[in-house]
């Protein structure tokens, strides 16, 4: 499956996968209580790749479309590598990058000067950062901290596996 910049729908079995795909910069919808038919129709109509661990859902999907991936493993890293390889993605950029999305609602992030933020940011954080990112949908704020270092280590691990 060759996709320039894939978009995903992840069913209820893949919440962590959905959040990681969003952080990496992929438009990723996550559905907790959606029917199989709804997910299949949405995937087909919006040309999004449906990611699932549900064999029954994948079987139904494979009869109506080629826009689906059945996750082969319980291991999150291996599943992410599987998804990226199937989409012919060879490298993920460190975060934050221009495509990084909100982990909560999938909105795009916009860069802000910290002096333009009206909601309170913890003082210790405020003093140590220069840039804040705000979600275009839910208005959640993000900033660079040790969590970004940890996520980038995770991305480095995935990139090494993509080069194997």
Supply database-style keywords:
4-stranded parallel β-sheet, Rossmann fold, 164 residues, 7 strands, 40% helix, 3-stranded antiparallel β-sheet, alpha/beta, single chain, 6 helices
Describe this structure in words.
- This protein is of the alpha/beta class.
- The chain has one domain: Rossmann fold.
- It contains six helices and seven strands; from the N terminus they run βαβαβαβαβαββα.
- The strands form two sheets. It has a four-stranded parallel β-sheet, with helices on both faces. Strands 5-6-7 form a three-stranded antiparallel β-sheet, with no helix packed on it.
- Strand 1, helix 1 and strand 2 form a beta-alpha-beta unit.
- Helix 4 crosses helix 6.
- The longest helix has 17 residues.
- The radius of gyration is 17 Å and the shape is globular.
- The two termini are 19 Å apart.
- The mean pLDDT is 91.
């Amino acid at each position: 499956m060759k996709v320039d910049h894939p978009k995903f729908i992840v069913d209820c079995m893949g919440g962590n996968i959905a959040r990681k795909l969003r952080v990496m910069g992929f438009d990723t919808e996550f559905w907790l209580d959606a029917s199989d038919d709804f997910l299949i129709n949405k995937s087909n109509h919006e040309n999004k790749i449906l990611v699932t661990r549900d064999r029954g859902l994948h079987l139904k999907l494979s009869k109506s479309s080629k826009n689906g991936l059945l996750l082969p493993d319980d291991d999150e890293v291996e599943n992410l590598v599987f998804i990226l390889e199937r989409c012919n993605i060879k490298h993920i950029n460190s975060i934050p990058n221009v495509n990084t999305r909100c982990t909560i609602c999938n909105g795009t992030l916009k860069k802000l000067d910290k002096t333009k933020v009206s909601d309170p940011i913890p003082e210790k954080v405020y003093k140590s950062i220069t840039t804040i990112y705000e979600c275009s949908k839910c208005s959640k704020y993000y900033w660079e901290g040790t969590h970004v270092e940890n996520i980038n280590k995770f991305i480095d691990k995935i990139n090494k596996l993509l080069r194997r």
